[in-house]
Amino acid sequence: MPTFDSGPHCRLAGSPIAWNVPSGTRALQRGLRDDGVVALIDYDLHKLGWRAFQDLCAVVLQQVLGQTFHTFADSNDAGRDGAFHGHWAIQAPSDPMALGAGVATVAQCKFSAQASGTLIPSMLVDEVTKVGRLHSRGLCDAYLLLTNLSVTGRTDEWLKEQVRTHGLQRCLVLDGRWICQQISQRPDLRRYVPRVYGLGDLGQILDDRRLRQARALLSRLEADLATFVPTEAYRRAADAVADHGFVLLLGEPACGKSTIAATLAMAALDNWGCGVRRVDSAEELVAVWNPDEPSQLFWIDDAFGGIRHDAALTDGWSRRMDQVMTAVKQGARVVLTSRDYIYRDARPYLKEYAYPRLRERKVVIDVTDLTDAEKRQILYNHLKAGDQPRRALEQWRPHLRRVAGVERFQPEVARRLSRQTFTQGVRLVTDDDLVQYFERPVAFLSDVLRQLELGSRGALACVYLSGDELAAPVQFTPALAEAVTRLGTSEGDVLRSFLTLDATFLQQATDVHGDPVWRFRHPTIREGFAAVIAEDANAVTVFLDGLDDHELLQQIDCGGATARGTLVRVPASLYARMIPRVTVPVSTRASSIDPFAEFLLRRCSPAFLRAWAAVHDQDLDRLLRFGGYINAYWEPQVLGRLQEVGALPETLRRKAVKQLAELAFDLLDAGWLEEPVCQLFTDVEREELLGRIRDEILPNLNEEIDRSADGYSSDVEPEHRYQTARDAITAYKLAFASHPEIITRLDEAERYVEQEIEEAMSDYEPSPSSSSRLAEPSISRSTMLYDRDEFDDIAEGK
């Protein structure tokens, strides 16, 4: 990779990379396509910043000119900015840059943050002198200059004459127009430098069909692409999509998961001509997947829940994962995102033993794993794109390297720092002030939200109550009108506030039909607003009344022990208002998790559960609708939880115990021993049932194991077929821990299970992987070393 000069000296160090070769340099200099037509697409390269421009030029040289560069670190570069040793494989042998193998070439870069400008000789005087000094030492036989500025013919000739006076006969200047030309012609460049999607005109990059998809897909993320940094996590994700057709992006809120997913979707549109579709669940993905159209990419944001773990979504992935993987094997690509803490809650339900791909590091990417250099570039990009005044940026500049190094660095917080709206009334002077801004983002956001005018708070409330998709122009429903009144503002003030909130707290976007809507600029703003507004007891009722019953189960907490990620914690004084709305589902199906069950099991206090059971006592019999494979149903867990807090009627408890005892003898089902289901049994009932298991099941344990594994289709892995038997043996080992003779029998059964799995594996033929996957070359990773402060020009142009 080359080393470039951007005014004050800076250098890159990396590994040799070789790429295919394009047409001759004369055509490249003129900015011509192969058909001879001049294409003029302006990518606003001046918005990149000096370091990102260097990275772009490095990728251009690798991809377009096919060169191998050896570079030198700042501390020991022998006076060279960078050097190339090798041959220029150019088709036109008469070209002055048609070099033989082993000829040393120095490549330099000149960057300007000005929107327009022309390279002039005075900018190059020092460089010419340096080139001559390197040539005299045998370290430079050719000179390559890249710049985002315009270059006149006069300057080009002047430079060539100057280097000739120092003994060099080979000189090539590639200007911003040429660089833009290469980007427009080569999707592979845009894939590895995806930020250009936010700099150029998509209408000149994509055809009409893909352009419509892209605009709908990225309507809420276009601004993020303009500041995007291709991190190592992004490159690993891009490789996962290309090589495996599947990637799961994990990270905490505000870490950039959706931006990476959007960029991958753009790359799929651009590189592979994929049809891109955003779906909300595994069921929807399977329903819309077309096996006759293999080139499809599906993007699922918050696959296992947005604010907290959504049991229904996870259950859908668990049930449909085999179909999803079938689609992947046939050429589809799937991009999922999830908050890390939600995935940790969902992971036990995803049957990873059946789908080992979920355990592979290559397809499960932690996007928060950023290097310090990546953090600095992210912070630089946001501050450059923001509206902070020059005075503030100059004051912050000495502290920004330390700020970018904080452990809890988040791209969304960097964006907030770049906007005056998010820093008004906040003291940000010293490095400690700035570090605290990143380490306590929720507190700072809450402080800003509390300072908003009532009209602005009313506007945010309207978007919140509309499920983060408020149709524009805004029409006030009775519920919205009541919310506005309760917040102490007026409809007129609210309407005027939308424009002032645009691009900061809110953004204008389009829905799936292409109609305009208002949305929160980032999910964390929605959560922060809800937390602040919930401090007002009068306002809490507005939010509760504005949620439908499904949203209510997802977004409230009624005294649970762990309320992590929950938006609104309902005070005990409002329990009576909530209880009638939390109803036992009328219909049910085999499912180990459900929003209703998750709410009662994890987000309700004992007092709430007792009051709830008293109100819904006529409907509690519905909780007996469960069958074999006890763990596959949520009803036994809810019954156990109700018994644990003293909320379950005794008659219903006895019915549940009788039903569970019958199932314990069906297909070696030990689910009755697990928490909280086991709470339903008295000590006497438990010992009686264990005695029957000892006398009736254990003597014929091998036959019971075989029976539990029967009935599966041939494409189900043997490990999965015998998992129920394994779980039962483990449970009974714990239950009979004080009976050595029974433990010996169970150990023998474990060995029998392993033997059966081994024999079944010899006949098992998994579905073959599809050969239709489009393999893509993986760009070599380079180590970049800089002594120059990335932030030294942060205030330029402000």
General description of the model:
With 798 residues, the protein is an alpha/beta fold. It has five domains: 25-185, Restriction Endonuclease, CATH 3.40.91; 196-366, Rossmann fold (3-Layer(aba) Sandwich), CATH 3.40.50; 372-450, no CATH class; 547-681, no CATH class; 692-763. 45% of the residues lie in helices and 8% in strands. It contains 35 helices and 15 strands. A five-stranded mixed sheet has the order 1-2-3-4-5. Helix 11 (282-288) runs parallel beside helix 12 and helix 19 (441-450) packs across helix 23. The longest helix is centred in the last third of the chain and has 24 residues, at 740-763. The two termini are 32 Å apart. Mean pLDDT is 79; it is low at 1-39, 68-101, 201-211 and 767-786.
Secondary-structure blueprint:
Layout: H1 25-30, H2 50-65, E1 69-70, E2 83-86, E3 103-110, H3 125-136, E4 142-147, H4 153-165, E5 170-174, H5 176-185, H6 187-192, H7 208-217, H8 222-225, H9 232-244, E6 246-251, H10 257-272, E7 275-278, H11 282-288, E8 296-300, H12 311-329, E9 333-339, H13 340-346, E10 364-366, H14 372-385, H15 390-396, H16 400-404, H17 411-417, H18 431-439, H19 441-450, H20 454-465, E11 470-471, H21 478-486, H22 491-501, E12 506-510, E13 516-520, H23 523-533, H24 537-546, H25 549-555, E14 556-557, E15 568-569, H26 575-578, H27 595-602, H28 606-615, H29 635-644, H30 650-663, H31 683-697, H32 701-709, H33 718-721, H34 723-735, H35 740-763
Parallel strand pairs: 3-4, 4-5, 6-9, 6-10, 7-8, 8-9, 14-15
Antiparallel strand pairs: 1-2, 2-3, 11-13, 12-13
